[in-house]
Amino acid sequence: MNDHETGRPAPVPDPRKAATDPFVEHRRLLFGTAYHMLGSVVDAEDILQDAWLKWHAVDQELVEHPKAYLVRTVTNLALNRLTSARAVRETYVGPWLPEPLITPSNAVEETEMAETVSTAMLVVLETLNPTERVVFVLRDVFGYSYAEIGGFLDRPAATVRQISRRARSHVQARRPRFEADDEARQEVTERFMAACHGGDLNALMELLAPEVTLWNDGGGIVTAARRPLHGPDHVARWILGVMAKPLSAGIRLEPAVVNGELSVVGMMGDDLVGALTYDIHDGRIENIRFQVNPRKLNGIQAAGATDSPTPNTKGPR
């Protein structure tokens, strides 16, 4: 870990004090907050590094509420990162998709996790302006009060309430409304992988909804569709075409829980080369989000290793 301002290695915390360090205690919450706000594992870890430096630069004896101080720090760092990221994404090559996060297998049963950290939801959150996104995440995902959020952002609670109402309305109008139980999702996933491995166009088309759309994020680094693909025939032929390319030889598809939902990842040996998430409606795949940008896949990590998000399952306080 390096100090961003000096370039020198950041001080390493005393292992004897780590167990009582509020930053260590609340790291899962801090990572979850940053990841929900940014949609990127790498950016979330950068935010945590900056927050750690700030935390250890203050007189902690004077911090009355360490958890609130840390959440406020992460919130404002993420808000600054979101504001600058909007300009960068305007010149992004092809569709932009969030950075996937591999989550534990039991997370597929955690409805709250799947709803708040799913790739589909992160795509919706991307349509909010930075302040709306921050307020929505703090209020609707982690359950902070309007007064608490106002304290984090230095805004009146009444203003935060208005922002929250606007953000929630926007999200509800755009959030995915597709549901599939674990058994149905597993069946569709297995059939999808079998059709892709077997090059079976008809079987693959039968799995795709008539209005299916595929978004493919290569970031201009690897070959990817630069515009969304629509319709079963177009989408199925494109997927099988990718699987048939010489560069794809040796790629195997495997089931994995990505962002809280059973999904599919592409592996080349031990290397992850793609993450594919999708919505299922009436037993068919409705939306497909295919992440192949290597810079985003480099940051994919197991939730247990990164202390990934644990949203508040009790709702707003």
Automatic annotation (TrEMBL):
Ranges of residues in domain RNA polymerase sigma factor 70 region 4 type: 121-170
GO terms for biological process, alphabetical: DNA-templated transcription initiation
Domain SnoaL-like: start-end pairs: 190-267
InterPro entries named in the record: ECF_Sigma-70_Domain, NTF2-like_dom_sf, RNA_pol_sigma-70_dom, RNA_pol_sigma-70_ECF, RNA_pol_sigma70_r2, RNA_pol_sigma70_r4_t2, RNA_pol_sigma_r2, RNA_pol_sigma_r3/r4-like
RNA polymerase sigma-70 region domain location: 25-86
Family recorded in the similarity comment: Belongs to the sigma-70 factor family. ECF subfamily.
GO molecular function terms attached to this record: DNA binding; sigma factor activity
Assembly: Interacts transiently with the RNA polymerase catalytic core formed by RpoA, RpoB, RpoC and RpoZ (2 alpha, 1 beta, 1 beta' and 1 omega subunit) to form the RNA polymerase holoenzyme that can initiate transcription.
Entry keyword annotation includes tRNA-binding: no
Entry-linked Pfam families: Sigma70_r2, Sigma70_r4_2, SnoaL_2
CDD domains reported in the protein's UniProt record: Sigma70_r4
The name this protein goes by in its record: RNA polymerase sigma-70 factor (ECF subfamily)
Gene3D superfamilies for this protein: 1.10.1740.10, 3.10.450.50, Winged helix-like DNA-binding domain superfamily/Winged helix DNA-binding domain (1.10.10.10)
UniProt keyword annotations, A-Z: Sigma factor, Transcription, Transcription regulation
Keyword rRNA-binding: no
